[in-house]
Amino acid sequence: MLKKIIVLFFLLLPVINLFAAEFSDRECTECHGVKGFAVPMGEHGESRKRSLDINVSALRDSAHGKLKCVECHRGIKKLPHRKEKLESVDCVNCHIDSAKTLTDGRDWRGLKKARKQRKSEVLINTERYTHSVHADTKVKNNANCAACHTAHYVYKSTNSKATTYRENSPQMCGECHYKALQEYKRSVHGAALKTPWKGDSATCSDCHSSHEITKKESLTAHRVVTKNCGNCHKKEVASYMTTTHGQLAWHGNKNVPRCVDCHRGHDTRKIDDPVSKVSKQNRLKTCRECHKDAGAGIISYKAHGNTHDFKRYPGMYVTGKIMIYIVVAVLIFFYSHSMLWFYREYKSRVFATSTSDSLTVRYRVKPKKKHSDVHFQRFAWYWRVNHWLLAVSVMTLVFTGMAVMYADTGWAVAVVKAVGGPGVFGIIHRTAGVMFLLAVVGHGVILLSRLLKDKNFKWFGPDSMLPRKKDWDDMKAQFRWFFGKGKPPRLDRFTYWEKFDYWAVYWGAFVIGTSGIVLWASPILLRFLPGWVFNIASIAHGVEAFLAVTTLFVVHFFNNHFRPAKFPLDIVMFTGSWDLEEFKEERPQEYERLKASGELEKRLVPPPSRRAVIISHIIGFSLLTIGISLLIMVLIGFSNSGLT
């Protein structure tokens, strides 16, 4: 029996010790509450002493005032405890555990996404700290929680008594970052802090944040600082993010300037200060830090230019307004055209009735297309290959280009990182650009050379892509039909909307291609051209690309695939041929003209094989899906950042 009691005693000993360790705060403050209480850090009492006293009143007034001493200082088994090796205070896990269980009683610690909107501010900042450079235990004497917040007098950062109060933060951070503090004191931000009557200014936490501190060379640090600069300099950061500098820097390109490269990180000066890197005296030298061979004209580049201030940026203003007017005019006309066309074709559907249990339902049905056993050859194989090359290159350009134009959207950051960074993205984009220009220019050169050799070709005839009077008459007739005022036009080989698509490609190739080449060749062209040329090129490149996306993936897709008569897909560009009945319905005037001349029989071909039809549908639906996905991503970027 005695043996069992002894065994039980040793089993319960840890529990007994645990309860024995619950000391009251009064017992702790009997020593630590005495002002001047300290212990020698050496072997003798005359050595340097470590202060261990606390201001009990201030502690009770702080954020941790309701906590017991032993809730933070755990592992104390007896008093006094001078020779005991105490556990270090674990602020991080305490904060995480305090938010472990939410109001519904579930443990959300592993469900970050689900809990994202429900985290407390303390928990968010704690998690940010664990990913910061200050939490790196490999760094000797690194900043722990107490280094910034103190050990016992923790106040909210909005409280002026807190060491982390924004106006107190420079001195607190400067205890470790002495050099940065001295630079900051000379800066426009530090000077304003010393003269608060001149207005508020930025302190350490305003730029670097309180807990998201990463290595200064890291991409995260750049993004955090750029965002925080925008809290005060909203227009400047917004304009910076529309430039190649801002967009590529956001994706991690280290060869483009960040805010701190031109304005210095801590010794920021006013623009008219002779010491400032962006003053008139120093601007050329600053630009040549990256563009070593640039001419003096580079200083006319507007690093923060925008299209809204005519007085300061007249060239950008005029270019932006012209491009926007073009976008608005084109989208209004052709979106209206598509909606009216959809409405008319839908209304043109015939009615059918269904009767069941004395209930008669009347509904519209899509007319069944007539089919024949013969097809009309519309496109030769080489024109179809050219179209596929054009489609693939355009979609690649949109994917890579818009990820840069809307650099700070979530999808853009994710895809650039997944592909391998801005360097790889740039190679893909420029390669696709070359493919696009080869497809467009190559098509034009081959076609023009053929037509010039044909002495009988009528430049304003039915086989020409040049606009003619019939196109105007067809468009008027089409709109009368839209509104139920007449019959649809009798169309010939090329319609007015097809000619718009055709020449829009050449217009886009000229604007996007020229501006793209200017931006691509900027290291060379900067030797000769003034800097403002590249501002204009960036605006033209981005806005024209946006117009291409919003017309190609909406209007072009609707005209050829999504309108009721074509839905869900027209595979003529894959098979090259139309069903003869469909050709007769779509192009009645061309059908009659070819039949009368005897040319129709020469262009009749067998229908494509079942395999060809299936493959065409797979490829077609894949391209449509990609195009619509790209459109959605671009619209997300547009909703976040606008156009110019």
Q: So, CATH architecture of the largest domain?
A: Up-down Bundle
How many strands in all? 7
Radius of gyration: 36 Å
**CATH H-level name of the largest domain... which superfamily?**
Transmembrane di-heme cytochromes, Chain C
Overall description:
- With 644 residues, the chain is mostly helical.
- It folds into three domains: 2-138 and 146-157, no CATH class; 158-289, no CATH class; 322-641, Transmembrane di-heme cytochromes, Chain C (Fumarate Reductase Cytochrome B subunit, Up-down Bundle), CATH 1.20.950.
- It is 55% helix and 4% strand.
- It has 29 helices and seven strands.
- The strands form three sheets. The chain has a three-stranded antiparallel sheet.
- A hairpin with an 8-residue loop joins strand 1 and strand 2.
- Helix 19 (381-405) packs parallel to helix 29 (610-641) and helix 27 crosses helix 28 (588-597).
- The radius of gyration is 36 Å and the shape is elongated.
- It starts with a helix and ends with a helix.
Write out key terms for the chains shown:
644 residues; Fumarate Reductase Cytochrome B subunit; mainly alpha
Structure at a glance:
With 644 residues, the chain is mainly alpha-helical. The chain contains 29 helices and seven strands. The longest helix is centred in the middle third of the chain and has 34 residues, at 314-347.
List the helices and strands and how they pair.
Layout: H1 2-20, H2 25-32, E1 38-40, E2 49-51, H3 56-61, H4 69-72, H5 91-98, H6 112-115, H7 121-130, H8 145-149, H9 169-174, H10 178-186, H11 188-194, H12 204-208, H13 219-232, H14 234-240, H15 244-250, H16 259-263, H17 283-287, H18 314-347, E3 350-356, E4 359-365, E5 375-377, H19 381-405, H20 410-419, H21 422-453, H22 469-482, H23 496-520, H24 522-525, H25 532-562, H26 572-575, E6 577-579, H27 580-586, H28 588-597, E7 604-605, H29 610-641
Antiparallel strand pairs: 1-2, 3-4, 5-6, 5-7
